[in-house]
UniProtKB/TrEMBL annotation:
This is Short-chain dehydrogenase/reductase SDR. InterPro entries: KR_dom, NAD(P)-bd_dom_sf, Sc_DH/Rdtase_CS, SDR_fam. Belongs to the short-chain dehydrogenases/reductases (SDR) family. It comes from Fibrisoma limi BUZ 3. It comes from the Bacteria. Residues 7-191 form the Ketoreductase domain. GO terms for cellular component: membrane. CDD domains: 11beta-HSD1_like_SDR_c. GO terms for molecular function: oxidoreductase activity. Keywords: Oxidoreductase.
Length: 265
């Protein structure tokens, strides 16, 4: 029997890309799903693709930046399924702009979605998990959560911040049955670059080459499922770009040179 059989898994950013692929992967392993993001019609499309019976999937549209609404959404999930076993904190937006040009509001927006929304949802779910004596947060960081690159200053900062927060949470709650898996994807073929913000907060609106050549989301989702099953604390999934994380740790001068000599995309 699968680890995820009959487990309640709440996925944010479930309307496309990695979140969608993870929803399909876990549906095929017997999970009950809560699908969240802003676009209700896309969530319904994903719910239909899972082929789960209506009783096993809840479409729950939400905006991660509407922090006050999050405790109410937790209640909705609790009322529907009685418990929450996994929360995949995956919703996020990226950036394409140099520090010198970027409006301050762009930084705020990225932090609201990628960091403050994630903290708020975690704090809203945590009391229930503590009462259950079990629960598992899966968090989508990035290779950019381990090293800084050009034109991603706010994005890198938001993803680095997740590591600090969730490492602390893991230490505080491990003995209470709470687990944390942080995943750092490399390039994964999703529409992420379309919704990336430029210096003025407008949408980048196109597919980047590296992402276009990246790992397929369904392959990523399989590897992530295995990592979560093994209760890995931190996992890097992607192509050779993930080696950058090891270079940062063991040869920081080298990765610094590589990054500064690369043209931004
Ligand atoms: P997508 O653009 O396909 O997915 C992003 C998801 O986040 C969408 O479902 C989007 O749904 C949701 N989202 C964005 N803003 C909000 C918001 N304010 N409230 C609720 N949901 C929101 O890209 P990916 O699947 O690639 O991205 C998923 C995660 O993976 C992100 O955290 C990203 O940073 C990370 N990542 C991706 C990499 C890649 O190469 N693809 C590499 C490293 C990390 P909606 O618009 O319906 O709200």
């Amino acid at each position: 029997m699968s680890t995820f059989s009959q487990k309640v898994v709440w996925i944010t950013g479930a309307s496309s890309g990695i979140g969608e692929a993870f929803a399909l992967e876990l549906a095929s392993h017997g999970a009950k799903l809560v699908l969240s993001a802003r676009r209700a019609e896309e969530l319904t499309r994903v719910a239909n693709l899972t082929k789960l019976p209506a009783s096993d999937v809840l479409v729950l549209p939400l905006d991660m930046t509407d922090i006050d609404s999050l405790p109410g959404h937790v209640k909705t999930v609790q009322q529907r399924f009685g418990r929450i076993d996994y929360v995949f904190q995956n919703a996020g937006i990226s950036q394409r702009s140099d520090v010198a040009d970027t409006n301050f509001e762009v930084y705020r927006r990225i932090m609201e979605v990628n960091f403050f929304g994630v903290i708020a949802l975690t704090k809203a779910v945590l009391p229930l998990m503590l009462a259950q004596g079990s629960g598992h947060f899966i968090v989508t960081s990035s290779v950019a959560g381990k090293l800084g690159t050009k034109q991603r200053s706010g994005y890198c900062a938001s993803k680095h911040a997740l590591h600090g927060f969730f490492d602390s949470l893991r230490a505080e709650t491990y003995d209470k049955g709470i687990r944390v898996t942080i995943v750092c994807p490399g390039y994964i073929r999703t529409p992420l670059s379309f919704s990336a913000l430029n210096s003025e907060g407008k949408l980048h609106g196109r597919m980047d080459d590296n992402i276009d050549k990246g790992m397929l989301p369904n392959v990523f989702a399989q590897k992530l499922r295995q990592a979560v099953e093994s209760e890995r604390e931190e996992v890097y999934i992607g192509g050779t770009e993930t080696y950058g994380i090891y270079l940062k740790r063991f040869l920081p001068g080298l990765i610094s040179r590589i990054v500064r000599n690369r043209k931004p995309e």
